[in-house]
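User: Some background: our group keeps a shared notebook of sequences we're curious about, and every so often someone picks one and asks for a predicted structure to add to the entry. Today it's my turn. The entry only has the sequence so far, pasted here. Could you supply the structure so I can complete it?
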Amino acid sequence: MTGPSSWQVGVVGAALSLLLLQRVEAQSAKAERPQGTTAEQSQPAEDPFGRSTPHGTVVGLMTAAEHGDLDRAAEYLDSRLKPADRQELARQLWVVLDRHLVTSLSRVSDKPDGDDNDGRVNRDRLGSVESPSGSVELFLDRVRRGENSIWLFSPSTLQEIPRLYDEVHPLWIERYVPQWLSTTQLLSLPLYRWILILLFIPLLFVVAALCTRAFSALLGPLITRLTRETDHRTVASVGPLRLLVLSAFFYIASLVGLSLNTRSFWSRVALTLAVIAVAWLLLRLVDVVAAVSLKRLQRVHRSGDVALVRLISRLLKATTTIVAALMLLYLSDVDLTAALTGLGVGGLAIGFGAQKTIENLFGGIMVISDKPVNVGDACKVGDVVGTVEDIGIRSTRIRTLDRTVVSVPNGVLAAMILENFAMRDRMRFHHTVALGRQTTAEQLRDVLARIRRLLDAYPKVESSSARTRFIKFSGASLDIEVFAYVLESELAAFLAIQEDLLLGIIDIIDACGASVAAPAPAAPVAQGRAVTI
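Assistant: Of course. Here's the predicted structure to add to the notebook entry:
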């Protein structure tokens, strides 16, 4: 047998050199490649068992075990046991989780990197299991399998499963139901549980109605004493209370030894109903408190605080609605961080596009807080004279003297000169009496003295401000100024007093033998032809 020729040795050597060079280059590229920058690391390949996220691992195990596929369920364990032992361990893990896991599947992270807030790298906490020997923490580890990073139940967790499984006891109700009801399943649930659900829901509504009536009967006298309202329908609301009782019973049902998926479902239903019921109840209570406050303000004649009560009521209702909506989004597994960031950016854009609306909103707050006018006040705003009917968040409505309604934006109202007739404490009586030129000095002195005595003796005239003076000669009259403040703030009462005083002055002029001057003739209008220069 002859040895290999020189060219064959050269070809083999060249091939070995090429393979060695390729291996060295691959190792160098792998060493120089920064962690977390490759497309495979940022977007891991999809695992056929759905183990790319902690949530996928837990749900995959539960689903496979519920369908009896223990071979697939064993793929979610980080264990080196034999296939048969791994399948039994997977079944025991499913039973422990299904009966005693204190968490909700919706709270398990669905991110490839796990929960970023727990401070652990490549490890996620699933929850805890209560046992007679103490609480046990359950963890999932991120491990490398080929080119993929997957999440598996950690070996430290799997070591505790046989002990926890031995401490698991069957549900108390399963001891009293026939065996075929426990073994027969419909949609992955034993048949006896479907029967319990069908019986439980109507019974739950009956119990909720009875509890609501009991609460209404107990709270009725207390509400009447606090609000002084005898009509309980305006003070209490049966609907929110009934929904709140239903949510409480659903939450209790979620704690009574059901499976993990059932507990998660009913817990989510209970929390959703509780948020809706509390928000509904708060909205009703805001309406009730506002109505009671408005009635009390009307009884004590404090109409100025009516607008403030309405504004606070609207703001509280808007805040309650927004908070309830955010909580419902959170229960629906919506990322509130992204939602709030979007709301902030959207709010900024809306703010730029709705500057006038925001200006009117703050103008309304300023009008209500400073109280330049109140509901029911007669006022003058620019050229508008009338009575304020409502001070809203955006505008103020004024009923004019022509019985029309003018809406003035609050931003404009806060910047305008506003005259409030209802704020005056007295009204001015100011007239000029023109006597004829034939009036003698003696008659003039007598008229002045009698008018002064008339003003001093009148009970509604402020004597310290009253004055009667002969002020000037005019072409056809002798002018007397009569001035005083009348102690009235209502226009109708002032007009009656003014009429009485003017009639008294006419009687004084007639008694003194004087007379009111005739009006001066109008100056003739020169007529002629226009001359153009």
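Suggested note for the entry: The chain has four domains: 54-169, 191-334, 352-423, 427-511. Confidence is low (pLDDT under 50) at residues 1-42, 528-533.
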